[in-house]
Automatic annotation (TrEMBL):
Function of the molecule: Responsible for the deiodination of T4 (3,5,3',5'-tetraiodothyronine).
Name recorded for this polypeptide: Iodothyronine deiodinase
Family recorded in the similarity comment: Belongs to the iodothyronine deiodinase family.
Biological process per Gene Ontology, one example term: hormone biosynthetic process
InterPro entries documented for this protein: Iodothyronine_deiodinase
Catalytic reaction equation(s): 3,3'-diiodo-L-thyronine sulfate + iodide + A + H(+) = 3,3',5-triiodo-L-thyronine sulfate + AH2; 3,3',5'-triiodo-L-thyronine sulfate + iodide + A + H(+) = L-thyroxine sulfate + AH2; 3-iodothyronamine + iodide + A + H(+) = 3,3'-diiodothyronamine + AH2; 3,3'-diiodo-L-thyronine sulfate + iodide + A + H(+) = 3,3',5'-triiodo-L-thyronine sulfate + AH2
Keywords, ordered alphabetically: Membrane, Oxidoreductase, Selenocysteine, Thyroid hormones biosynthesis, Transmembrane, Transmembrane helix
Keyword Membrane: yes
Length: 239
């Protein structure tokens, strides 16, 4: 009974968090837009500070002009709404069963999350280091989801040219771009229903540790909550 109540309360929190995030994004955008008219220098300074939190300012490929203006676009608001709508399906909570959602391997074969759990199996530099350091105690899996910055949606300039996936074949092709970065572990893709992204609340990115079919660790929603160092601490305890 207590477990059921706890689960229900967490689901309620998911809905409240989604509403709060949408309202925060709209208010933040409105404030920055106002500052851009009255105090453009201050607005850019605040925006760059925000960029530091999700490493945009540390990426040598991007200038402020590549990503900054995109936050004032209608596409940004649509993305916020889409991501939070998807997150309403979140079912992966620490201490509860990990959803066994359907996935596809890059050769188009249907599989699922649980098939990659340790003992049952057939950002990237930090993640790859985790794979190297803890492959003896954990199996790693990358699930490629809906493209976060599709060129025909909320896009950054000077970024990879990937459009919103309309078919599974397009999603598989996009995932193969990630494979070229050699993540050192299997890469699979979410179904076109985005069922994994929804049940794990994973858009645009999120880290999980699953042990014996249950969620042992749930990371924050990226990019701000994406923290491989937290995963490292969890795996060190297991090791």
């Amino acid at each position: 009974m207590g477990t059921a109540v706890g689960y229900a309360l967490r689901k309620l929190l998911v809905y409240l968090s989604a509403v709060a995030m949408i309202l925060f994004a709209i208010a933040h955008l409105t404030l920055l837009k106002l500052l851009s008219v009255v105090f453009p220098g201050l607005m850019k300074k605040i925006h760059l500070k925000m960029g530091e939190k999700f490493t945009m300012t540390q990426n040598p490929k991007f200038k402020y002009e590549d990503w900054g203006p995109s936050f004032f676009s209608l596409a940004f608001i649509k993305t916020v709404l889409s991501v939070n709508w998807c997150s309403l399906g979140l079912e992966a909570f620490e201490g509860h069963a990990a959803p066994d959602t359907a996935l596809f391997t890059l050769d188009g074969q249907k599989t699922s999350i649980h098939r990659f759990l340790k003992g049952n199996r057939p950002l990237l530099d930090e993640f790859k280091q985790l794979v190297k350091d803890f492959s003896d105690v954990a199996d790693f899996l990358v699930v490629y989801l809906a493209e976060a910055h599709a060129t025909d949606a909320w896009a950054f300039a000077n970024n990879v040219d990937i459009k919103v996936h309309k078919t599974l074949e397009e999603r598989l092709a996009a995932a193969r771009t990630l494979v070229k970065e050699d993540p050192l572990c299997p890469v699979v893709v979410d179904e076109m229903t985005n069922i994994t992204a929804s049940k794990y609340g994973a858009l645009p990115e999120r880290l999980y540790v699953i042990q014996s079919g249950k969620v042992f660790y749930q990371g924050g929603i990226g990019p701000w909550g994406y923290n491989p160092e937290e995963v490292r601490k969890v795996l060190e305890k297991i090791k």
